[in-house]
Design goal:
mainly alpha; 75% helix; 14 helices
């Protein structure tokens, strides 16, 4: 019964992704940005929603991957595709390194330590102007070609790359959380002491989750570099991690796809409200508080809950009818 909504939902998602190009370059740009930040939010959800590690330093991996792609292109003239691979590799290695220190603590100390590492990288990017460009950022990145389309000028090419990256990460996470490794992550989230008692090396699995999440965030960062062709120090600030946390909670941390819904809601609200009111952050914050108080499972979690409730009622009605029919036949 729980699987009944997934295939239609995936088909609907694919249909929306196919229809989006007919909306013009502006719509493609918005949808591409949503898909990139959906990857970022889903990667954060792997450690927040499935492993129980609350992090405010996830922007470090997203930002470092972006800097690697842009920096290699600007300073060394390396293709954006090779830069993207290097960016994902660097963000994964950085997550493994930072994770070795952070997993030694939990709760608020873990949150503060991850944020401290992110702010450390932010401060380094501010001071290392010759490499990062400081607050001015890095300009002059030459976007690579994609089967003859230039990513700098062709919105459809950027959109296709974003869709491919999003679907790969979505399918990977869907398979991961249903694998034995994903079950261990969920077990650590639900009862860490019990997992320790039955012999699981909890610290090691926390590090694995943290590293995978950092690598996936690096995919989002690399795509953002190809999409934007520019990077500044803001991308390393902890507030970007806060935005991703809002996306996770808005959509629902109990599902793989929920954070993607949260990313869409957050960015659409930001673009829509900011076009009418400069205090858009206030209204987004108000909606966030409402979701925390009244929608504990998030928007997507609520949709799934309602769907499963309707399916349960329908199955019960069918079962009752079958029982009555069987009872009548027996008489």
């Amino acid at each position: 019964m729980k699987m009944s909504y997934k295939l239609p939902g995936f088909i609907l998602l694919c249909a929306l992704l196919v229809v989006a190009p007919f909306g013009g370059d502006y719509l493609l740009g918005i949808v591409s940005e949503i898909l990139i930040f959906a990857i970022f939010a889903m990667s954060l959800n792997l450690i927040v929603g499935y492993t129980g590690l609350l992090s405010f330093g996830h922007s470090a991996f997203f930002g470092v991957a972006t800097y690697v792609v842009i920096g290699l292109g600007v300073h060394l003239g390396i293709s954006g595709w090779l830069g993207a691979l290097a960016g994902v590799a660097v963000s994964t290695a950085l997550a493994a390194f930072i994770g070795m220190f952070c997993i030694r603590v939990k709760g608020i100390p873990f949150l503060m330590l991850t944020m401290a590492f992110s702010q450390l990288l932010f401060a380094a990017a501010l001071k290392w102007r010759s490499i990062t460009g400081g607050t001015d950022g890095l300009i002059g990145f030459v976007s690579p070609d994609f089967f003859g389309w230039n990513l700098a000028t062709d919105a459809i090419a950027r959109y296709i790359i974003s869709v491919i990256g999003f679907l790969v990460v979505l399918i990977f996470l869907w398979c991961l959380v249903r694998s034995p490794l994903g079950s261990i992550f969920i077990g650590i989230r639900d009862n860490e002491q019990r997992m320790r008692a039955i012999g699981y090396p909890v610290q090691r699995f926390k590090l694995i989750a943290f590293t995978i999440a950092g690598g996936l965030a690096g995919i989002g960062g690399a795509l953002y570099a190809l999409f934007n062709s520019y990077v500044s120090t803001d991308i390393l600030h902890w507030h970007l991690s806060g935005d991703a946390m809002i996306m996770v909670i808005l959509g629902g941390s109990s599902t793989v796809f929920g954070p993607a819904v949260g990313a869409a809601l957050f960015l659409l609200l930001k673009n829509f409200i900011s076009s009418y009111n400069e205090y858009w952050a206030f209204w987004v914050g108000f909606i966030f508080i409402f979701c925390v108080m009244f929608l504990r499972e998030g928007v997507w979690g609520l949709v799934i809950k309602r769907f499963e409730s309707m399916t349960t009622k329908k199955n019960k009605v069918i079962s009752d009818k079958q029982k009555k029919q069987a009872s009548g036949d027996s008489i």
